[in-house]
Amino acid sequence: xxxxxxxxxxxxxxxxxxxxxxxxxxxxxxxxxxxxxxxxxxxxxxxxxxxxxxxxxxxxxxxxxxxxxxxxxxxxxxxxxxxxxxxxxxxxxxxxxxxxxxxxxxxxxxxxxxxxxxxxxxxxxxxxxxxxxxxxxxxxxxxxxxxxxxxxxxxxxxxxxxxxxxxxxxxxxxxxxxxxxxxxxxxxxxxxxxxxxxxxxxxxxxxxxxxxxxxxxxxxxxxxxxxxxxxxxxxxxxxxxxxxxxxxxxxxxxxxxxxxxxxxxxxxxxxxxxxxxxxxxxxxxxxxxxxxxxxxxxxxxxxxxxxxxxxxxxxxxxxxxxxxxxxxxxxxxxxxxxxxxxxxxxxxxxxxxxxxxxxxxxxxxxxxxxxxxxxxxxxxxxxxxxxxxxxxxxxxxxxxxxxxxxxxxxxxxxxxxxxxxxxxxxxxxxxxxxxxxxxxxxx
Length: 443
Description:
Elements: H1 12-25, H2 37-44, H3 48-60, E1 64-66, E2 72-74, E3 95-97, H4 111-123, H5 135-147, E4 155-158, H6 161-172, E5 178-183, H7 187-195, E6 199-206, E7 209-210, H8 212-220, E8 225-229, H9 242-253, E9 259-263, E10 283-289, H10 291-294, E11 301-305, H11 307-319, H12 326-337, H13 343-363, E12 375-379, H14 383-392, E13 395-399, E14 410-414, H15 423-433
Parallel strand pairs: 3-13, 5-6, 5-8, 8-9, 9-10
Antiparallel strand pairs: 1-2, 4-11, 6-7, 10-11, 12-14, 13-14
Helix pairs in contact: 1-3, 2-3, 4-12, 6-11, 8-9, 13-15, 14-15
């Protein structure tokens, strides 16, 4: 119990800092049991309430987790350890089906768009006091949201989808609050939530999105927010169907006080229609980034939502960076307005490769998933073994541990770097490395 490390401090802040320093230095290992609160209070000569406050702070910061009578332990993967570190090294000669990047061949050249943005800045420089969002970009965003039947609301710009989610969560929630999240789900979001002092509550998903019964259960258990991915869900490729959207809206209508965040990062790379949940709760946002369609380095996302939430995001932006660069806004605007990216062709390219990989795996007795986007999710019995054996055979895939909370093991295979003729060879390698695991949903 807490090994050879002696926790120190007289105040709650000192005790929590002592534990956090030890975790950061590796002197308290992941999974290590901390002393019971009363025992530590006697050892330190402080009131048990002081230790309880310290443990509460550590829990809210994602450093420890508590399990009632089983005590408090250092989290198996503290919030300071990004899930991106749960990866394999793609060395020379290894084919990359792991990193989750879009296909560079499908991304637009930025030269003309950047030149157009620079010319616009020369003609009309963006100075202090300028509107936070370009008028034409806002107009196009409103029109696109309306075309997808997203309720009318104010529009804001953030530095990518995760930046938007962080600001929205911080605008409504407090440390210790629970957030219902897809499981498996986006690793960066699963890192962000404990880093904000929030508690993730896993909601299983299938090909059509979060399961309604599990969503209802999470909300009934006190989750104050729900984050869902509309299309091209990472890592499973799930997409919310029309029926699933109706079911989830019915669930949300019974919990109108929760915060709803929709991630539509698949906009521009998928051909499945959007079935938004927006408006089913009093506080909601829908976020669209341009990373997958225009390039990851264009750190820009658009969001719309209820006026209270969007106003809070705008206000916090003003007190921080102030605004997202108008050079970036003008670059995105040029790409969008001129139709530089053929979204239908991009979606078709990913569809062909994804469908081919799923079919090839199916012929080898492996049931993989992926309705949309660039990723395929394969449930496996031995995640670590599959990843290691594939690496030895020349293929890098992403370990499912990057994306899971309570879901069973799996691996994510990204098709964007693959040529069609490579897919049978990858399927052969996966089949050789894998012990099949029957699955219909992902949990």
